[in-house]
Amino acid sequence: MAQTKILLIMGVCALVLLAYAWRRRAEWLLNLLLRGVLGAVAIYFINLAVASRGYPALVGVNPATVLTCSVLGFPGLAALYGLQVFQLL
Q1: Are 36 and 69 in contact (CB under 8 A)?
Q2: What does the pLDDT average to over 67-88?
């Protein structure tokens, strides 16, 4: 039940983002794509650095984390790692 609600909220957010993107399509979508790719690369290298110190990889690269980095940028990346560190405590 909770997962259905989360998926519904994500779907509504995606529709709102697509409606906004319809106005400024090319520039906005390119920016979103670039931030998603850079966020995925950043997650990979941060996980690599954390794993070299002997800690487990904290955040996985998946559609949810890439979407978070795409929409929120660096603060989203920091929030992902902050939530994972908070979960370890």
Answers
A1: yes
A2: 90
